[in-house]
Amino acid sequence: MQIIRATLWLYLVTALPAAWAEPALLTKTATLHIGIYRVQAEIADTPQSRERGLMQRTQLCANCGMLFVFEKAAQHGFWMKNTPLPLSIAFINADGIILNIAEMQPHSTAIHHAKGNALYALEMNRGWFAKRRIKHGQVVQLPKFNLQNKNP
User: Fold this and answer.
1) Per-residue pLDDT at 149 exceeds 60
2) How much is the pLDDT for 146?
3) pLDDT tens digits for range 49-77
4) Left if phi > 0, otherwise alpha if psi is -120 to 50, otherwise beta: which for 71?
5) pTM of the model
6) Which residue from 38, 79, 84, 80 is spatially nearest to 62, judged by alpha carbons?
């Protein structure tokens, strides 16, 4: 019995603190500005983080979102498979200009594409852009990204 307790204690002391700390080390965020509005965005800048996106999430705070950062501008496409949140997505070019905004349905496999070469995509709660009258052509102030080592 003492061996089991000692093993459990050792596990709790070594493994759990590392597991608790790991998500904080992996999550990158940046503050974006669109006109007078401020957005706190998680950064998805690796193939793995872009693939996962907001899958399995059940909520986002009012002014929170996810900014997808790509290595190359293209007409990227997004779907909502395994994503229970209704979302809006803004496709943004390298100059920070919104190319188009799409409304996306939870769990849908319909693909929404950028209407031009987008280097970024910003997902927010559905209706966030419309409620603030944010439309294509507006500028998103983005942090400078070093796309080689992907740190904002």
Assistant:
1) no
2) 56
3) 999 999 999 999 999 999 999 999 999 99
4) alpha
5) 0.79
6) 38
Cβ-defined contacts of 131-137 (< 8 Å, 24+): 132/34, 132/35, 132/37, 134/34, 134/35, 134/37, 134/90, 134/98, 134/101, 135/98, 135/101, 136/98, 136/99, 136/100, 136/101, 137/97, 137/98
- Enter the tokens of residue 82: 């395994």
Q: For the chain, give the number of residues.
A: 152
According to DSSP, the β-strands at 140-141 and 64-74 are unpaired
Q: Hey, what amino acid is at 108?
A: S
Residue partners of 53: CB distance under 8 A and separation at least 6: 44, 66, 68, 78, 83, 123
d(CA 44, CA 13) in angstroms, rounded, equals 31
| 147 three-state secondary structure | coil
CA 150 to chain centre: 14
**Torsion-angle region of residue 3: left (phi > 0), alpha (psi -120 to 50) or beta?**
alpha
Is pLDDT of 108 > 70?
yes
Q: Report d(CA 30, CA 55) in Å as an integer.
A: 20
Average pLDDT over residues 98-120: 98
